[in-house]
Amino acid sequence: MSGRIKDMPAAERPRERLAERGAEALTNAELIAILLRTGLQGKSAIAIGDELLKAHGNSLEALCRASLEELQSVPGIGFDKAVTLKAAFTLARRMVDERVQDSPQMDTPERVADVMREEFREVNVERFFVVLLNTRRRLIRRVPLAHGTLDSLLVHAREVFRPAIAANSSAIVLVHNHPSGDPTPSDADIKVTRDLIRAGQLLKIEVLDHVILGRGTTERAKDFVSLRELGYFYA
Fold first, then answer.
1. Are 73 and 142 in the same domain?
2. Structural domain for 205, as ranges
3. Is the pTM of this model over 0.85?
4. What separation in angstroms does the CA of 98 have from each of 12, 91, 199?
């Protein structure tokens, strides 16, 4: 039996099933197959999509973070298909960005994490953001400041507060990720936070929190921690 999608009964083809039943009726591999369009040497796009998922631990998040080179390491994924997948992931992230354009309130670490989570979905190194807020604790904008190694990054007070001053922000939230998945703050995270709190006090710009994003596990439901909630803002 051929593995080509076009040789399947119409009711089993991903495009036809999406049109008839909606996208939610399709598996992740089938949705990926629609993006891939064609298979390779008798192997269907669905089979390649399934192999692509397995190569990334059956995790869409890991697949989203994969580089073009990593995507192309799966047989059947050439440059054009890898670029198509990367474009789809980026569009999904930008769609999430549009949802936060209504100046959401950022007065809890949960809300901060919800707004910022997509910024770290595709990266394997630490990134640091300063989130600018107005007097009502609503989002002005998010400013990326630094890329680091897998273990550390450097953040300077002048880089953190320059965009806050320019935007007339009354408060900021610090946000970065731990690519290891464990959001537990390091000694360096704690020191940087306290240094920036003191700098903010001099500038009359309040540092409301420092949220570190990782990944949730069965033992740890939350994929983030708040240094304020952990008590580091009161020492």
1. no
2. 102-226
3. no
4. 34, 10, 32
